[in-house]
Amino acid sequence: MIPERRRYRLKNKLLGPPLVTEQLSSERLGRPSALGVLAPDCISSSAYGTEEMLTQLVPAVGLAAFSLLVPITLAILGVLFFVTLSYLEVIEQYTKAGGAYVVARDNFGPNIAQIAAVALLIDYTVTVAVQTAAGTAALTSAVPALANTFDTVAITVAVVLLLLFGNLRGIREAGRFFAFPTYFFVFALGSVVIVGYIKAALGEIHHIPLPAHHLIYGGTFGVSGKGLLMGLAFITLLRSFANGGSSLTGLEAISNGVSSFRRPESRHARQTLIVMSSVLAFLVFGVTMLARWTHAVPYNIGSPTVVSQEVQAIFGRGFVFFMVQLATVLILYTGGNTSFNGFPYLANFVAGDRFLPRQLTRRGHRLAFSNGILVLTAVALVLILVFKAQVDGLVSLYAIGVFTGFTMAGSGMVKHHLTHRGAHWRRSVAINGFSAFLSAIVVLIFAIAKFEKGAWVVVVVGPLLYMGLIRLHHQYEKESALLETGAVEASEAPILRRHVVVVLVDRLDLATARALQYARTLTPDDLRAVHFDIDSKEARELEDEWGRLGLARLPLDIIECPDRRIGRAAIELVADATLDGDTECTVLLPRRGYARVWQRFLHDRTADKIAAVLSQVPHVSATIIPFNLPGRFGERVRNYGQSVQRARMRSTSDEEMPGTADEGTDSPIDSEGRTGVDRGGRKDAPQRPKVVSRADSELARRAGTTTPISEITPRQRVKVAGRVKSVRVQPRAGTSNLECVLSDGTGGMLLVFQGRPKIAGIEPGARLVAEGMVGAWGRRPAMLNPSFELVAGAEQDSAHN
Fold it and tell me: Does this model's pTM top 0.85?
């Protein structure tokens, strides 16, 4: 076994063993499961939407707030109605990957789509902070001893870090675990609303005694009948409406996850969206009515919450109270986890379009987009710390991104219907256009009414982030054009006549000796060892040692460097070597590697700096030759290398199997598709994570009686079955051969299809059953032109579907 580093072994213990790409495929969801999995972010907002409206109304108008609360809620539910109709259109047209970003990209182009990308990225980030902060507020309502700034922030940060850990381990959005908190919360809060209606009809609900003014949010309690609209300034009314708009967050989740539904995806997703919106409307309106009847007011510290006061007023502080609070905490924290699925996938889409760094497209140890998860966590933690985990402060950043996404989705669908003019397109244009208009009005209201309360951050950061994405895309496009222009001509251009290899020597040690050894394998026309003289004493000592150790047959050039600019001196050296225009120059730079991190701080990185400078000179290749000082890991690798060498020596003494041994690959290929090691089916070869997928099950069924690859012998006709590990096209005398390595877990066998550069379906990950005579090809067991059956093709990553 090739040894692993300690850091990787620690990662395996913390996150679990690595997952393979085939484990990306997940079971599709039915409507009940999909509602539980995709709705937490949306439905959970009913726990704080009403309270956020009251935070603006109560300090301004006092008890009059409870009269104005219902009309504002009805206006918000009207927006919910039209946005839901708009997303029903989105789901009908985009069954593979919906959402505002994809709709805008397909209808307005990638540049305009970045407006939706920025809005959604901000939305996902703030969602983590808002949901976890609201969950902590619900927790402190049940446990008042924790209702202080330090404990609130500490608990919220701990929850976000726990979500980070869980998602790095590979928690999937489709996990059935997330369905329970949704239904638990709907049942718990729905029961509170229904019982509250009954008690209100019977006249058994009484007003909650008002707390001291300094405990109420804002520190004041408005007086009704004073000023415009009973003391309510128009701007305050707009702020209340905007805050209440946070109840609609997460409405786009069904559209984003439509591809995870069972077929027919569109119909099932539309039915689920209708149910989710109906449940949300019922809970939001119910919490609003209970607030009006109980006069529950928001507190300065965010705890106890309005919902907790309502539950206590109806059921008392008993078992039901704590169950409802538990359900609220669970769904709010679960709703925060929704962003850990949405943000990395959106970042992957945007990065795939080359508007974000490409690192965001890479899957990590457990198949999650780890870089996106880490970025999301970092920004969410900053927001939590800056706003001290207070929901009201965070909501100021919230709804702008949400409703901008709604606006882009509605506008994109208007463009779609105007372009395609399908059935009932005029009705669809009216629905989506009105939804986009309402959403844009909410964005404008929020930007104006909440500007000084924190919305200015989004108003300023949003355009800057958009310009950053466009600038990054232009840079990627520019780099791509530079790299691709003339690439074919350069690869086919005749090689230069001379090859000069220069080894830069700063001192004579094992690292330098390794570089000189490698230089000789390049068989250059001219091999030079060069030392730049920046210290005369060291240069003389090196020259004496060079001669004393018998290296005189390779002369050492000592070049004066009076200004100590080694990079400049190196450029002058290679420029002189390639002056004739017919010389390729390779510069080898020995670099010492150190096992301990602290050891690296004791040495500079001169080799890297020189390589960066020389790489800009045409026809000059700067190559770093690493030499790692012995360490625990290095000793294990060295012992492994020695065992491989002994195995190869034994294999060369065996009789070579018959076949076309003069042709084929230059180096053997092992069962895992790597060149340079002939494992011959050794059972101690490194094992990949085993996955029993549908393709593997079908292969086992169709293969019948086969011979394990590790047991095959030459000059024998055998039938083998396995997975294609690697594929290469080998040019041969005017034609090309397709060579692939078939692995069955016990070893690998080379399949050679002569004169056929490509065969449909044969690619890495495909499952084959092959039968033929065993011979040799490039000193390893092989089948030439076997008969085969393609059982299953390679399973693809669905992230870009």
Answer: no
